[in-house]
């Protein structure tokens, strides 16, 4: 991760309501989060919590209903249709779980990677596509079509397609959802390399707890709101050295610390289990005390 200190995604009180016939579904209900340029972030949450909805908003595939969503300086609630088309083609790259959606089956791997460049009228497309294939370790598969590639190879090409127009932000929806764990590890390695070497900000939506343990920042969404965050405390270099016994390993397995989210209005969401543990869940009130640099939360009965 090479976080440059610039905000690339700023999301405040984001709301998305889907209307089907007479039914309204509140898919995002005031989501707040900020992602800095150069971060590699995983978004986790139960089925139906709003992960894909948020990724679709980030990708410009669907419009938010209300709130604020600014990506790379572009206000996604205000872009015109043609600005949104350009944004989808040039500012973000999208990798889907389903490769039939990522790759056009009757085109070769090389042609698939060239396609986004054709759509945005770039020159020197073939050279750039060949460079990307090399970066993905897929030069030897350039003339293969979808059905001639393994699941892992298809995902590499899908990432290559997403990188074709040099996006600042790469979005991936369950990229390891349909491959075995060894392939999933390799795909995650590619994301890490792209993040580190090209400095591209990456947001991955995943159910895969194994994958989310391997990234430095994890944002948990519950019921369309940010519920908590996990930050990795050790760098990969340190962790790798630890594994190889090169630096004193402390034997600690849990390298991610959980952070509760405080929104811009100062509202704090405390994990439900914590409230349960001190017997205040559903009570509506807690005792809060400030003591030097600590805030302590008690049950009012204590
Ligand atoms: N196009 C749509 N029309 C109506 N409701 C939708 C639409 N897309 C999503 N929803 C609803 O919005 C809520 C959030 O869905 P979303 O797909 O974002 O969740 P998710 O966390 O990605 O779930 P999963 O992990 O199962 O993919 C769900 O209740 C879902 O049924």
UniProtKB/TrEMBL annotation:
- UniProt keyword ATP-binding present: yes
Where does the source fall among the domains of life? Bacteria
Q: Which GO terms describe its molecular function?
A: ATP binding; ATP hydrolysis activity; transmembrane transporter activity
Q: Where is the ABC transporter domain?
A: 9-248
**EC number(s) on record?**
3.6.3.28
Q: Which SMART domains match?
A: AAA
Q: Broadest EC class? A: hydrolase
**Keywords from the named record:** ATP-binding, Hydrolase, Nucleotide-binding, Transport
Q: Which GO terms describe its cellular component?
A: membrane protein complex; plasma membrane
> Know the name of this protein?
Phosphonate-transporting ATPase
The root-end lineage is: Bacteria, Bacillati, Bacillota, Clostridia, Eubacteriales
